[in-house]
Amino acid sequence: MDIQELHKRPPYGMIAILFFGAFVAFLNNTLLNVALPTIMEEFNVKPAVVQWLTNGYMLVNGILIPASAFFIQKFTNRKLFLTAMSLFTLGTALAAFAPFFGVLIAGRMIQASGSAMMMPLLMNVMLAAFPVERRGTAMGMFGLVIMAAPAIGPTLSGWVVEHYSWRTLFEIILPFAALALMIGFLKLKNITPNRDIKVDILSLIFSSIGFGSLLYGFSTAGDKGWGALEVYGTIIVGAAAIIAFIFRQLRMEDPMLEFRIYKYPMFALSSVIMVVVSASMFSGMILTPIYVQTVRGISPFHAGLLMLPGAILMAIMSPITGRLFDKYGARMIASIGLAITVITTYLFHKLTVDTGFYHIMLLYTIRMLGMSLVMMPVMTNGLNQLPMSANPHGTAMNNTLQQISGAIGTAVLVTVMNSRMETKGTELAAAAAASGKSLNSPEVMKELAQQATLDGITFSFLVSTFIAAVALFLALFMKRVKPPKTDKAIVKKFQTE
User: Fold this and answer.
1) Measured between alpha carbons, how far is 19 from 12 in angstroms, rounded to an integer?
2) 424-457: buried (b, 16+ CB within 10 Å) or exposed (e) per residue?
3) Is the distance from CB of 65 to CB of 57 less than 8 angstroms?
4) What angle do CA 302, 304, 305 make, to 5 degrees?
5) Any transmembrane segments, and where (predicted)?
């Protein structure tokens, strides 16, 4: 289909099918965390083993998302969607009826192999279907899908696990996944251009080892500590493999992932801002539940309810933010959003052991409002500077960096929290002993642990405040851009518009 004709008549029906499939896949991402203790008990596995249900899912995403640029250029969007949804549906069925733990792990990894392609695929269809001046609104609707699904996930899973078997989580998803696959088979057409490119096996190996190892290393650092060979060993191996991967891509005429897109200054700036914002955002999503459940003693289900309004508001704001982006550009909106994020993150630093439930809910909701004004405008502004044929590489790069920076930010801030907790715990124990309190008393030790945990969490929020402030400073340098018609530096490799 001609690009001008496509822009005049965007294929809304096809995009709706992709949205439905993506919503089902993204909803699955946040469903399982609450059910892990129940699964651990049923299959009689240890915490370190059951974590592979989330770690394995994350690793498959880390391996496949960087390769998504190759798949999107090589295959039609119809073939990719049908393959992705078929894998996701098969994985969901395996997980729902898993007779033992190994089958459940296999089901989750097959699910991940399908869902990993959904976000890059949908983003590339959106970028192809809409002209630059309407992309903000379109990407805002995309944001509604990717934010609404995770918003529902934790609360829904908390309720299901309390009343039904953990298998119900997969049984709920299965018919919707099958429906999305059937509708896609009957109605989906192809609109994205394809090229006859060949996969470079060595690049795929370097990418898989590099991104997979890096994600795994940072994601397990908070639990096992930076001194564990499993952590620093995998990070070193991952970093070495990524360096080898980058050098190989720069020497190739037709690379798997094009790093030369960083010669576009606004795309490069948007990538840096997204890395910083992701580190701050994902860490906040981890620290808040720890505070709510550990310090305040609120149940997991009510902790999910506490975070639900913020997640729903973030989803609702996505299309609104998209329209604002089309009208005002990224700098003003992102700067306002980051200012809100900095202020609310600092206020989280002021939490106490008896901060009210609704006060925490309001603070978290306003913080999510700030975040909703940042991610989509920053990402879209950067992608707008790329030639259309470079979009698969831009979206693959953004999605990969977002995952890695989220893992790194979470690992660093959880480590900061644990270190601060240990230091504060030692100080409090010494002070309690000096004042004549018995350290053998369960009540005294519980109070000391609560105070130490609170201090660790609030200090981590203070660090997160400075991270968000860096993103705010960088956002001031953003400019509104349009894609070039051609680019001599990469014209040999990219199709021109």
Assistant:
1) 10
2) bbeebbeebeeeebeeeeeebbeebbbbbbbbbb
3) no
4) 60
5) 12-32, 52-72, 84-106, 112-130, 142-160, 172-189, 201-219, 225-247, 267-292, 298-316, 328-348, 360-379, 457-478
Assigned token pair, 468 = 């968000």
Distance of CA 302 to the CA centre of its chain: 23
Q: Is 390 left (phi over 0), alpha (psi -120 to 50) or beta?
A: alpha
Alpha helices in 225-299 (DSSP H): 229-251, 265-290
Q: Model-level pTM?
A: 0.75
**What is the length of the chain?**
497
Tokens of 109: 């990894």
Task: Write the single-letter amino acid at 296.
Answer: R
Walk along the chain (497 residues) in steps of 10 and give the mean pLDDT of each run: 56 74 75 74 76 75 78 82 91 92 91 84 75 68 66 71 83 88 82 72 87 80 78 91 91 84 91 86 72 77 77 81 85 93 92 88 90 86 84 82 77 81 84 77 80 89 91 91 58 44
Give start and end residues of each alpha helix (H) in 349-390. 357-372, 375-384
| Helix orientation angle between 201-224 and 229-251, rounded to the nearest 10 degrees | 150
| Identity of residue 496 | T
130: region left, alpha or beta (phi > 0 left; psi from -120 to 50 alpha): beta
